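[recover] target loaded
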């Protein structure tokens, strides 16, 4: 009867020792795993440590994290979009202005080309009237670029081979300039002109030719001529003289030439000058 009881007592002790042994084995396995390297050996551990150190350095270079960075980014993005829209508006305006400039340039080419053609033709007709037997013309320095071209005046008085204005005398240059001026008047007429002592340097022969052109121009336009030439005053319809009295006050004297006696209006050579609508001012002089 005592043998089974002993056997039973011995079996209970074995059952209590089994869980304890199993727990001890698991603890030893975890400790072994913590001490053992990862899969791949020691080289893998070294490489991972280097990568970790690199990431730590990069994170340090970033500095302190700005909590307002996202809000600042949104503000800058809105500013960028606004400036982008403004830039596009400027580009659009530039394209529109370029089209306007091109249209204006084309209009200038057309108007200038037509005006130059008319003035050049009128100059070819006017020059021989001031220089009988002479030849003159207007030429463009760059006909292919009407926006930047210049205009040269070629004048060849009778008996001379020169064409450059710098080689002409003072009277010839003045007469050539008058020819250009009257060519412009003829090509693009105006109802009113003002001439200020344009014939001051002309001799009697050239003055007579100038007055012939002035007479023709006066038939279609009103002229106001400032002159000290008596022959110019003789063809005027009205004379205005500016004089200064002894007290320094200027005085205007006027006289309508058409109201004078025809004998008094005769020229020095006995011929009666033609009346044209020319108003002549005799300039200012001091009365002693």
């Amino acid at each position: 009867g005592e043998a089974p009881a002993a056997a039973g007592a011995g079996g209970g002790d074995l059952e209590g020792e089994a869980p304890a042994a199993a727990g001890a084995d698991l603890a030893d396995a975890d400790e072994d795993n913590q001490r053992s390297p990862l899969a791949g050996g020691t080289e893998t551990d070294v490489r991972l440590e280097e990568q970790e150190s690199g990431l730590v350095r990069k994170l340090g270079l970033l500095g302190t994290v700005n909590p307002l960075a996202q809000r600042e980014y949104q503000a800058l993005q809105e500013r960028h979009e606004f400036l982008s829209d403004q830039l596009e508006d400027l580009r659009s305006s530039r394209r529109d202005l370029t089209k306007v400039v091109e249209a204006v340039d084309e209009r200038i080419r057309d108007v200038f080309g037509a005006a130059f053609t008319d003035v050049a033709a009128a100059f070819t007709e006017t020059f021989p009237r001031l220089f009988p037997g002479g030849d003159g013309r207007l030429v463009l320095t760059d006909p292919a670029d009407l926006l930047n071209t210049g205009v040269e005046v070629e004048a060849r008085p009778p008996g001379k081979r020169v064409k450059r204005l710098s080689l002409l005398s003072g009277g010839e240059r003045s007469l050539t300039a008058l020819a250009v001026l009257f060519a412009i008047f003829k090509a693009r007429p105006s109802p009113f002109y003002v001439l200020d002592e344009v014939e001051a340097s002309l001799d009697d022969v050239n003055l007579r030719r100038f007055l012939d052109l002035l007479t023709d121009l006066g038939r279609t336009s009103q002229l106001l001529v400032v002159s000290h030439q008596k022959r110019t005053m003789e063809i005027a319809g009205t004379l205005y003289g500016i004089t200064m009295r002894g007290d320094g006050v200027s005085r205007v004297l006027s006289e309508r030439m058409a109201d004078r006696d025809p004998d008094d209006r005769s020229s020095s050579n006995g011929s009666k000058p033609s009346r044209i609508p020319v108003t002549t001012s005799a300039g200012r002089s001091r009365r002693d």
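[recover] notes: Residues 1-16, 265-275, 283-288 have pLDDT under 50 and may be disordered.
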